[in-house]
Task: structure prediction
Amino acid sequence: MGKDFTVLMARNQAMVEDCLARAFASEPRHADLQEAMEYSLLSGGKRIRPILTLETCRLCGGSILEALPFACGVEMIHTYSLIHDDLPAMDDDKLRRGRPTNHIVYGEAAAILAGDALLTAAFEQLTKAELPAGRIVQAVQCLSQAAGSAGMVGGQALDMAGEGRALDREELELLQSLKTGALITAAAELGCIAAGGTQEQRTQVRAYAQALGRAFQVRDDMLDIISSQEELGKTVGSDRVNEKSTFVTALGLDGCSALVEKLTRQGIEALNGFEDPAFHIWLANLLAQRKK
Amino acid sequence: MGKDFTVLMARNQAMVEDCLARAFASEPRHADLQEAMEYSLLSGGKRIRPILTLETCRLCGGSILEALPFACGVEMIHTYSLIHDDLPAMDDDKLRRGRPTNHIVYGEAAAILAGDALLTAAFEQLTKAELPAGRIVQAVQCLSQAAGSAGMVGGQALDMAGEGRALDREELELLQSLKTGALITAAAELGCIAAGGTQEQRTQVRAYAQALGRAFQVRDDMLDIISSQEELGKTVGSDRVNEKSTFVTALGLDGCSALVEKLTRQGIEALNGFEDPAFHIWLANLLAQRKK
Result:
């Protein structure tokens, strides 16, 4: 796996945590809205997406700090999507990262509103970058397309509509490329945009992130089967209870393993030509082999 | 009331309808997501907010067409907020503009997702304006602040938290300035931003729209009492059933009438110095006297 970037990862995480913790700190509190937003936003996620934004900015020749508002915007989108996905009308999950889900703590109405507010705040975050206005507009475009009806929300709609019946491989690929892949891809692209990268760089970064995102989701489906409830912090096999189709139901565990390896290799190859892709290579391997 | 702008209003409405109808037309359909979005987006609202954006752009010296993407972005935010406000966990409304609400037709999950997607699409819309990037960034900033936790969503959170107890006048003013006022104000400001207006123009336009928004809400509370169910297309007195505090419970009908008149006068006075505020004066009077 080459060099160990654990320390760099922790430093980036700390930078993101600090930025997210400050985002709503000076805002007037309206009922328990801001508290509900921060409950989920500051619940110790791994911050894969924002770190991908920061390090892709560096990869494309930019400085990490300039990409921080973009990184936090992506994480706000990710957080809102988890809050809404957990709602009773959606996946009806009671646990997330080992803690009660947002609507269990604050009620359904507050959880819907906390999600709405985080989604809105993501776009405000983008405008806080100290970058040329043209890059910020590109970022708004990229993130809104990835997160909206032609991207992440579209994937969630397919997911809800597909419950209770078996999806074939193609349907599953589309669903996951939208639901999970689009935002991971946007996270990397935003880093490239922040750095003022070339169109060629953006294309390479996209290819890397798309492969990474697919591998991530396949691995996630595998972990849902092989992990125990304590390790994962959410109900084991909850996807199976809801009769959801997953890559494991489509390919089996061994087939999934092989696919994750292949995708990881493809993702790494897409970065050929970059001066220093060592972190991205390490991250791809880390995600492919993660235990929880 | 001076000149009658009904024809101009209809022309603006048609322009907005056309733009909204095209927004998702060429997008791949994912389950019934796009259908659910368009069900609410194209349900024949009065389009007050986008028209305010267009005409304020003209008022500040810009050309209406340039502001059209901003106008449609505002209307998408407004529409998403109605879909989410109507949800069972929120106001639990079954009728809106005389038709079944989104979640009654498409189910709760689809309605949540349709709202999320419209909220996201609003920001994509802003980037479609053929304007200098700096103005688009200002628009994203203005709209996200007005629509988020420090604005509209904050107001809805106060509204939900205030149900079942009497709010005093000050609480009610804050709640409504956030829940309704912030987006109406942003609608006008976005017109000024599109036109590249001066800071002074923006301040005047803000003051006009804030007064208009307050008058609008007071009048709305009055209509909730005096209209019949057929006229309004929603359950009469539904705010009363939910034991919500309104301006009528705080001031009585006569007190509300006087307040609407005063606010309308103040709003119109705020536009002193503009070359041709005739439309804005007409609109303020129209809204103050509207029957439904």
